[in-house]
Design goal:
Shape: globular
Pfam families: Methyltransf_25
Domain Methyltransferase: 53-145
Order of helices and strands: HHEHEHEHEHEHHHEEEE
Number of helices: 9
Helix content: 25-40%
Protein name: Class I SAM-dependent methyltransferase
Organism: Streptomyces lutosisoli
Largest sheet: 7 strands, mixed
Radius of gyration: 17 Å
GO biological process, one term: methylation
Strand order of the largest sheet: 3-2-1-4-5-9-6
Length: 241
């Protein structure tokens, strides 16, 4: 099962218009506040730290480059070719490899796994952006990529984030400038129940090894100068036994 063409086109449109300027994209916060924080939760659960690392939904590669400074083989994978163009321009030294991937398409996940072998996966804020019918196939694709030895780290918006986002979108002054293009391209986050995420993982044959809460940091600020942070939950999962 592949993601819908509408979803793919929405992301192509968004990334085609996005600026290369650092911090111009709503969720593209600096790595010290995102993946740098997440690794402290993730690394203690890695059964095989030397495996390739896949940054799934890498976008313009900000977090991918941080990972490539710390792991020997990092792949930034995304559904959008335009996003990968941004990532490659920002990585002229080729620290990471970038790959067009629809992880909800079984054969594409299988092909990448055949090339890399088992991998450790980092995925931030992707599942809640997917269409409801694509979410289980996407998580099934993650299970294919991690194989027997890999681990997956997910950070997803909590249910409570929906209220925050609706408040921002419906503000009397209109949505914040960096959120506006997300909404305009029709890629506003969908509602995913907090309890649904571990169920998707279990249905894919993965065991949740650890979980917790941490804010999903954005690059946008409120009128009083406070950085906008969205409630989110993280999980580490893999095969055991």
């Amino acid at each position: 099962m592949s993601v819908t063409s509408r979803y793919r086109q929405a992301w192509e449109g968004f990334w085609s218009e996005a600026s290369d300027e650092q911090g111009a994209v709503f969720w593209d916060a600096e790595p010290a506040l995102t993946v740098g924080v997440h690794l402290a939760f993730f690394e203690p659960h890695l059964a095989a730290p030397g495996l390739p690392v896949v940054d799934l939904g890498c976008g313009n590669g900000t977090q991918t480059r941080f990972l490539a400074d710390r792991f020997p083989h990092v792949v930034g994978a995304d559904l959008s070719a335009a996003a990968l163009d941004h990532a490659r321009r920002a990585d002229p030294a080729g620290q990471a490899v970038y790959r067009l991937l629809d992880a909800a398409e079984k054969t594409e996940a299988e092909t990448l796994h055949a090339e890399l072998g088992d991998a450790n996966l980092y995925m931030r804020g992707v599942l809640h952006q997917a269409e409801p019918d694509d979410r289980q196939p996407l998580v099934d694709g993650l299970a294919t990529l991690v194989g027997e030895r890999g681990r997956v780290f997910l950070v997803e918006l909590a249910e409570a984030a929906g209220l925050v986002l609706r408040g921002l979108a419906q503000s009397a002054d209109g949505p914040p400038p960096k959120l506006a293009p997300v909404l305009r391209h029709g890629i506003a986050p969908g509602e995913v129940a907090d309890a649904a995420v571990p169920e998707y993982l279990r249905a894919a044959g993965l065991t949740v090894l650890a979980s917790g809460e941490t804010p999903l940091v954005t690059t946008e600020y409120t009128a009083d100068g406070s950085r906008i942070e969205l409630p989110s939950k993280w999980l580490v999962a893999g095969r055991t036994g």
